[in-house]
Amino acid sequence: MIIYTPLAMEDVFPCDETEWKNRKEVAIKNGTITIRRASEDAWEVCALQSSDPQDYLRAEYQPGAEWKNP
Fold this sequence. Notes:
This protein is mainly β. The chain has one domain (9-68). A hairpin with a 2-residue loop joins β1 (23-28) and β2. The radius of gyration is 13 Å and the shape is globular. The protein has a 4-stranded antiparallel sheet. The chain has 2 helices and 4 strands, in the order ααββββ. It has helices at residues 9-12, 17-21; strands spanning 23-28, 31-37, 42-50, 66-68.
């Protein structure tokens, strides 16, 4: 089976289960954001799923953007 995706291999097939335990989904107005724990009190945006195209242009929703205690 071949999977065509713009995601990194680690995002599709994480190395171990702890990678998934460090992630959570946050509901936003038009969809969800997947974030992962970057440090004890900070989170990092991994992915955005939204029905509003403008959400993809917002800096706080960009991959790598830092979130504090969601």
